[in-house]
Structure formats: structure tokens, C-alpha cells
# Entry
Amino acid sequence: MERSPIHQMLACLLLAALVVAGFSQRAHSQDDTWREAYPAYYETMPPHAEDGPGANGYWHDPHLSWRNAVACYDFPPEEAGCMPLWMVDAEGLFLFRDPARSRPMATLGPSGPTVLGTNDFDSEFEAGLRATVARVLGDWYRLEATFMGGYSWSDSVAVRNLDANGAAGNGNLFSPFSDFGNPPVNGLDYNDFAAIDFRSRLTSVELNMRRRLLSRPGRWESSFLVGIRYLNVNERFGYQTTTTTPAAAGVNYVTSTDNAMVGAQMGWTLQFLVRPRFWIDFDIKGGIFANRAAMDYALTQTAGGVPTNYAGGDTRDRTSFLGELSLDMHYQFASGWTFLAGYNAFWLTGVALAEDNFNTDINLLQLGPAQVVHNGEAVYHGPHIGLTWAY
# Structure
């Protein structure tokens, strides 16, 4: 039995919890040893990233002694909690593609009830990867490179209209090309079969410079970033109908879109230290992009058993916008290792989506000109879990 992404996510969460519990017990034992050695210090100890020597993902260095081998990694433990030279973060990010709207694709009879629409697609969380490599450049700067991808949402649905004897023919399905039978058009309406399918892919690559802000030492930290980002949203939408009698007819229509976006972004991160080795991050980003929005389509229209092919395409340059929010919790379960979990949300506007570029004007599809619709909106959101290694 194939497991859905949500089941896989729950299994990963359970496994991660067991791993964290095991390492946490070991880390607490190490903490007790240092408490016995330095009881006076621990009685007045402020909140800190970890109790023992080693690197962590929390930015604050309580003694402003960046990468000093004696101050950061040797006893006494009050010199612990320094920033690393390198950080590597790997996460499983489960995203849900939230459709902005629904549109009907087939009705039973002229202007009848909708029996096929885009809301019939089964939307699920899709498992993907987000990985970040960061190089610390000093007490105040960090260079970060992030990749996010591996997403491919897809589904297909169909409906068939049979006669009283359960056989195909004498169809009563009406298509959007005739505004669902207003008025009916032979060759486009009276279908006994209709189907739709879609596919959507998302990829993101970013390079950022992060600058630490002056914050309250040991309690909370904040930083902002500026950088460049590449986004790609690639989609496909298909529509197919068949009519058996009185003569073979039907439509096979596929439209594809591609958005290649490059732009600048800014962001701000707040880190709040809750207790030793446990902190919460709140992150917000916004970007403006130059989008090369492209659309192409292929239409095969069959009438009287004879197919006729049409094709076209269009490309436009436009401006797109991206907003991103995330809330994460981090727990450092061993020196240099941190478990993280949280939730992400992305808002993308000014893009060409395949469903929005489904053109119901049969004359424009046959004769042109093709025109790309590039004012679409896409929303993605979902949980993530991962590990951070710091050195």
C-alpha cells in the first residue's frame, strides 16, 4: 500500500522525536557533570544556547570572542555557545499547493449541474527538499546559499455519460467552449467523455548575505538579509473530450506555462532563546522579480472522424512578487547538532498558471493571436522538519 506524503511526514516526526530524546538524555548527563564542577557559576547562569563547549545555530556569542579556540571550545563552560564557521541545514519541506479558485469544465446538459471541475483535483502535501549551506564571516555577517525543490503536484479526473443501456453514445456533457451549451455547438458539446489533468513544479535557489543586529545578549537575537533569488514555476493543464455518435468528434487541448523569475529579496529573522539549547525563530522575506512568463498550447479538434491540429504560444516580461513566512523551533541535542521543525507559507503573485491560460475562445485558438495570462496567484504552505550541523 502506497503511503501519502502526510503519512511519511508523521513517520519522520516520530523518528525525529525518538532520536532527539536519545541525544537529549546524553546531553543532559554532560550538563550535570559541568554543573558539579562549576556550581557557583550555574546558580547565576543567564539563558544560553548550550551548556557545553561547541557550535550552535543560535547567533549570540556571549563573550564576543568569535572562533577563539580557548574561549569557545575549552573549559570553563561559561565561554561556551560560540558561533560556528560553517552551518549545513537539511530539511524535508512538505508543501500544499492551494488553488486560488475553481472553474467548471463540464456540465450535464445545457447550463446543467457541474459534473467535472478543477475542484475535483486531489490536492495533497508534496514532499520536497530544502538545503542551506552557510559560511560565517565574522561576528556580524554570514553568507547563505539555499536550494528548495523536488516538488511535482499532479492529478487527473474524468467523467463519462452513458445511455440508458450503459453504453457510450448520445452524450449529454457540455463544454466550456460553448459556455456549456449557450448555444450548443456540434463537435464541442454532446460529449460522452470528458477528462482534465494538471501538473505543477516549483524550484527555488537563493544566495543571501545576513547581517546580525545588535540585540539583547543571551535573550534574543535578530538579523536581516539581502540577496538574490531564482524561482521557477512550470505547469501543464490538459482537457480532453470524445463524442461517439452520430460521428466521431472531440477535443484534445493542452496548455503549458513556464515562469523563470530572477530578483532581489530582503528578510528579517528574530531568534528568541526560551531555555538552554531551545530557541524559536520567526522569519519573514519579501522579493520582487523579473519574470519571463511563457505559454504554449496544442489543440487537436476532431470532427467527422477527421482531426485538425492547431498550436500557438506567447512570451511576456512582467514583474512578480513573493512573500514568505516561517516559524521554527530549534533544539540542540548534541554539540554541533540541532533538530528543527516548523511551518512555512509562500505567496506568489504575477505568474502565468496553466489553468488560467485555458482559453475557451475556440476562434482564438484556431486563428490566433495567442496571449499569455500572467496575473495568476499561487499559495504554498506546509510543515518542515530537519537537522542542522554547525562547526
In short: The helical segments are 5-37, 39-43, 69-73, 362-367. The chain has a mean pLDDT of 81.
